[in-house]
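**User:** Here is a favour to ask of a fellow structure person. Please take any protein you like and set down a full record of it. No explanation is needed for now; the record alone will do.

**Assistant:**
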Amino acid sequence: MLRSQTARYLLTLSCLFISTTATVTSNADTVAEDEEVTELSTISVTGTEPEGAKISTSKLLKVPGAGNDPLKAVEALPGVVMGGFGPFSIPAVRGSSPNDNNYITDFVPVGYVFHNDGSSTYNDNLVEDFNLMAGAWGPEYRNALGAIIDTQLRDPYHEGFTTTLDLSFLRAGFLVESDLAKDHAAYFSYRQGLLEYYVENFIDEDELTFTEVPKNSDYQFKYHWKINSTSNIRLSATGAKDSVGLDFGEDSDEVAREPALEGGLAADQFYDNQTLLYDRQYAGGTYQKTALSHKKDNADFSLGTIIDVNFVADEYRIKNHFTTPLTGGDGIRYGFELESWDIQYTASGIYNPCNSDTETCQPISTGTPISDEDSFILNGLNAHTAYDWLVTPFWQVSAGATAGSNDFTDETTVEPRLSSRYEMTPDLSFTSAYGQHSQFPSNLLFIMEEYGNPDLNMPKADHYVIGFEYNLDVSWTAKLETYFKQMHELIVSNPDYDAFTNPNAPKYLNEADGEAYGLEFLINKNLTDNWYGWLSVSYSKTTRKNQLTGESFDYSYDRPWVLNLVSRHKWNRYMTYGFKWKYQSGSLFTPVDSSNPSTANYECNDRYYAVGSDLANCAGTDLPNVIADGPDIYIPNYKDQNSERLPAYHRLDFRIDFALSKHQVYYFEIINVYNRMNVSDYSYNENYSDREEVTSLPTLFSLGAKLTF
């Protein structure tokens, strides 16, 4: 992880909104903000089915600081903290890792949804709605411990040819759509990041230089055929590509601490997804949704001599869901999913088994050389069913289960799901939910033969959620929800493994547990009296325990207090303005108490290799011997894991929109209005004797325009 001040500041450049955007559209209708009557697309902030207090996607598009990106605005919702740093932050939900989420778009899983500049991989003109399901979701969703983020891209408009051009200093793109024939329509969107053309002007070449400037692009295609009033066929394709390369300079603290970083970083990843989707409403009321999809993931990543890996995966999927109404308001949901992964990888470098989610990791340079090349096929079968029972006109209960198996871990899981909604009064409802969940290990290194333990089980979690929803009047709604999450069979490295003295011991074991609990409050106001907004307040606690060592500690994403206040006001018929203020407890980190110098070389094939040097010639040999007289590496002596907390994070963003007409809309944003220099980390010198603060974004400005023709 890059930790120097310059490197960190460089990364923040990729989320700057210092841009002027021109959008040119033909044959498009623009709906003024004051014309919003109903929320056609919503984000659920409940832990059960998408009921109760909701925030529309149209509102999230205008959250100050989000740059018209509703997925980026998800951090303004309760229960969500952002993991990572600045532009690389992704959501961590209710005490789980960002890697514990499952992202679904148009009914099928996607590769990744955030670029290396922090923006989502979707054109905001196409995002119709998405649901954030933070716990105990229905049995039709699976393979996640943290959250399900389900995004729906709209269908193409069945009308005349339309072109939309988006131009800015950070991104350029276009969207074309049109009807093709009666009941046939399509669109295609492509966007290209522009950060590559000027980012080199902002770096200190003594600390790092780019070997490849940051690049990213994405595309979306959808073809829609209305077969008849009850049937549709959609053919869609989505994809994204990101790449970056850099070299560390002679003054880099990173290389001083980790000699194996010499040689720099290179990362190149992309995914392409194609889906054929069919839906039909049968005469008896049964609704069918069927998808055939293929997704290709490709990642090339190298970091000095620490790791050089190429990963390619082809995923094939058949997904079939049904919903059948029954008499008396009851219904049944059921379906199945077949998936097959063809995975190939090559990897070499230095490896130290460690899972930073459950333990403190030593410098990778203290690891041992390793080289591996393999391919395997992973097949899975999953099925679900749920009965939706209208017990009384005021009480609804849903009971179901999802079952799955795969031929890699040879596990079969049956996970019950239960939810209830009771209308205590016309304005007050009580909700509750329970669910068992599991997730295939998100880091494939943990289960690979050479790097991990193929006999690992899938991590699991039990979710408990209860809440109250209250409609104060036509414009005000509120939600109070409490949750408890118990995680077990989490992955931790095996302290008995040693590359030299005990190389046959498993590198990882399912010997860690965790708990998370919290209370979340949301009050939401719809647009009345010329303003709308919401306030969310969350209190939570999340811990982990390493059963092998008996150590218990607060989890790295533990943020006890999170507060979001969002408000937008209509000043007159032309101007609206608003702000977002966010406060959250500081991040946890593990401080260094002292350090000890360590010198070591590797010996293989009758040659000596210093720690951090090219180990390619060690490939295929027995584990090397460690001998003395190598370069100094300081081994940190850590205090208790996550025993210190950074200062609290808070930031105010402001946005003003000028709608001179339906065809001319301009906006201006100020990000971090009062220039709060939030501390995001500490950077240590070579021997860990001194540390300095690493701060995130200073005050930034944004200017944009949308012009419709």
